[in-house]
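Hello Y.,

Per our agreement to keep a running log of every chain we model this quarter, I'm adding this entry. I've kept the format consistent with earlier entries: sequence first, then predicted structure.
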Amino acid sequence: MRYRRFAGLSAEVSELGFGVWTVGTTWWGIRDEAVAVRLLRRAFELGVNFFDTADTYGNGYGEEVLRKALGEKRRDIVIASKFGYDIYSKDAAAVRRGHAELPQDWSPKYVRFACEESLRRLGTDHIDHYAGHNARIDAIRRDDLFEELLRLKGEGKVLTYGVALGPAIDARQVDEGREAIARRGCGVQIIYNALEQMLGRALFGEARARGVSVLVRVPHASGLLEERVTTETTFGENDHRVHRVNTDEKKRLWQEQGVKKVAALDFLKRDGARTLGQAALRFVLAEPSVASVLPNIYDEAQLGEFARASDVPDLAADEIARVNALVDRNFDLPA
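Predicted structure for the entry above:
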């Protein structure tokens, strides 16, 4: 495993991180806590020391299961968690439908309360990186919110803070990311991969210039770049990807065209030396401002493949340029 600097932290983080949402919710089909604990512990054994969770994952369960799995390793791991969704409201269960967003609360009082509750569930006295979960521009512009985060940092309860942009890619996130980096001087978490590059292209340069770290999630374009999705693949009711293909038009644009795009990236594979899934990780990690990449991990074989991405050859400059050229012309597919 290779490790990288995370701006504001003394500890380096594994370039492969573990996004706890795949084991802290049922959205990827994992319902057995023993499976979740085993995957988290196996990741640690393979050199992963960076774990990204959130209070909204399973309404607190994503933090609790991390403590159950690795609480005794607290000194050896770096924990990121997120805040902003009101998981405590009595009306939350009534408001939420499926994967719909909960109401958000960015008031200083709520943020402090949420932080204390996360610390309790995690069984720790500090969170290494605390991020506003899918914060929009109005939240990023709230001085009182960031003054409270500074107070939490001054008390040692939070070591660094930032903003996770989302939930899905949206052009507005370019302005949100720029505001977070330039106005708040904090890092951002974004969706970025070899197929979906808008946010990275807009924000990486600014992150480098300001010396802040970027976290990247969905590096495999929700499974496409793992070569686990074909034109015939169907998604179960509990699989969040069903929302990408719930209309014929979305299916054509994401699944059918996505499979064709993946086929055009076959040149990135190296027989026995680099899978496309590993190449997808190395593509993201070619950007120096990226501290860690967070693939969706939901089985042990997949975890092993991703962990070995630290051992495979980096992408050459001409390979990266070829990928970018394909993206620029939409892989010669109709828009």
